[in-house]
Amino acid sequence: MASETTTPTTAETVAGTIAILGRPNVGKSTLLNRIVGEKLAIVTPKPQTTRNRITGVYNGERGQIVFVDTPGVHGARKGLNRFMVDEAMGLIPDVEAALLVIDIDVAMQGGGGKGGLGDPEAGILRELAEARRPVVLAVNKVDTLKAKTVLLPVLERLSTNESLRAIVPVSATKGTNVDNLVGELWSLLPTGPPLYGPDMLTDRSERFLASELIREQLFLGLRQEIPYAVAVVIEEWEEREGKGDVVISAMIIVEREGQRAVILGHKGAMIRELGTRARGAISDLLQRPAHLKLHIKVHPDWTVSPDALARYGYTAP
């Protein structure tokens, strides 16, 4: 997907890829969207919303940073959850550096790792240290603090972790200190030309982004475990040049008949509402009218079947 951006103007520029890593629901996707200035990664209040890597290209005066948002690292053993963790941790050898994200609640709770980090963060830092990848820590959601005086002791404790090049408190939702965070990241990258052209925003296709926007509405509109059992597959994509619109047919995959019934709703009311919201989001993304047809298919236990996971886009890195 392309977008207008600023071409770096300095004589000697830097470029490289930075992985955004952390446990679920700490604001990694919101931070990516804030930095690049566009909604690339879907965002919901539910943990484990992100399932696939999402690339966002940022061009600045010092060069180009290719950010890769990743699923949250958690204690997963099999199936879809294992895929998501592998998506995150398997990226480490392929990047120049990492942006580790925690939220202020996690930072204040502390943990058994260096600087009081928790087990997920400690595990991520071990992998990064073995790969010799530099790390900057972002402490997100500082806007939620009622007493700002508690922040300094937390930052001082975290600073005792020698694995961190810098620690930056931010608010991804409000944009607080995000420019300073990006400023710390430039020094982690090697000198070199941009990896992508100046008009490139992400390497993800419009079809993929549209499927994610549909899944976002499923996460926002459904409760309990149902969103975690849902996949979305774009089956048809017709761009009608004469009318300047696009007609999309998408299949929603669920594991049980009961989940299908919930998504349909009484006389189809739920799926119509979800479709209306998703269509609006897709139209905004594509900057042209979109027509969306949603269907539901029951595929028992697809979240633990390697063949089904691959069929629905969750292949191993």
Describe the structure.
With 317 residues, this protein is an alpha/beta fold. It has helices at 28-36, 79-89, 104-109, 119-130, 151-158, 178-185, 206-221, 257-264, 269-286, 306-311, and strands at 14-21, 54-60, 63-69, 97-103, 135-140, 164-169, 231-240, 245-254, 290-298. Strands 2-3-1-4-5-6 form a 6-stranded mixed sheet, with helices on both faces. Strands 7-8-9 form a 3-stranded mixed sheet. A hairpin with a 4-residue loop joins strand 7 (231-240) and strand 8. The longest helix is centred in the C-terminal third of the chain and has 18 residues, at 269-286. It is globular and about 60 Å long.
Properties at a glance:
317 residues; alpha/beta; three-stranded mixed β-sheet; globular
Biggest sheet strand order reads 2-3-1-4-5-6
Largest sheet: 6 strands, mixed
Order of helices and strands: EHEEHEHHEHEHHEEHHEH
Mean pLDDT: 93
Question: What is the CA-based Rg, rounded?
Answer: 20 Å
Strand content: 15-25%
**Annotation, overall tally of beta strands:** 9
In angstroms, what separates the terminal alpha carbons? 21 Å
What is the SS-derived class? alpha/beta
The helical percent reads: 25-40%
Low-confidence stretches: none
What general outline do the C-alpha atoms trace? globular
Tell me the number of helical segments per DSSP (H or I, 4 or more residues long): 10
Can you lay out the helices and strands and say which pair or pack?
Elements: E1 14-21, H1 28-36, E2 54-60, E3 63-69, H2 79-89, E4 97-103, H3 104-109, H4 119-130, E5 135-140, H5 151-158, E6 164-169, H6 178-185, H7 206-221, E7 231-240, E8 245-254, H8 257-264, H9 269-286, E9 290-298, H10 306-311
Parallel strand pairs: 1-3, 1-4, 4-5, 5-6, 8-9
Antiparallel strand pairs: 2-3, 7-8
